[in-house]
Write a structure and sequence with these properties.
It contains six helices and six strands, in the order H-E-E-H-E-H-E-H-E-H-E-H. The chain is of the alpha/beta class.
Amino acid sequence: MQRLIKRLFRWLVWSFLAGLVFLVGFNVWIVERSRSRVVSAPAGVPAAPVALVLGTSRNLASGRINPHWKSRMDAGAALWKAGRVKRILVSGDNRKADYNEPRDMRDGLVERGVPMAAISLDYAGLRTLDSVIRAKEIFGVDQCVIVTDDFHLPRALWLADRRGIRATGFQGEPVPWDLSAKTRVREWMARINAGLEEWVLGTGARHYGVKENLPNDPVP
């Protein structure tokens, strides 16, 4: 019995170590493969027809402006003002009538000087995978600049590559660690989940149950 317990313990230890190596290795691979395509200054972004700005909530639970949202809106507006894109596609969650990420993103961009006529809205970008799939299949995007946080871009670019979208990443001003540590750590697991969905589960966009209060605004 004691020998069996030792074997079980060794198996658990080796399983844990193998899982840890995979977790770290996959995350490093995702980040390194996209590093050369992540840009932090508008002037360095290759021109593209459209910028895909990925959604997040405008406000924190405390009611304060979400620094991740502000960073993305500032980046999207800077990209348009620099003339690197002709249109901006904002993609976010609008499953509930009182929660509308695309509308808030559009309003944030307009406040920063982007014409409303240059902005298209996707109301069913429930998560990164949905936004990428819908950009390709619903809005006909083949080439774009993806705008989001620095730590989020590697996964977004990988998913875009998987869908045949030629994408460059433009990162917003990084949110300090003391305000983003939990989100950054969660992204490590989100990358693993993305790998499982792509290679094992074959998950598609979550079209079901989505209430789009307004029609999607196609990218011309």
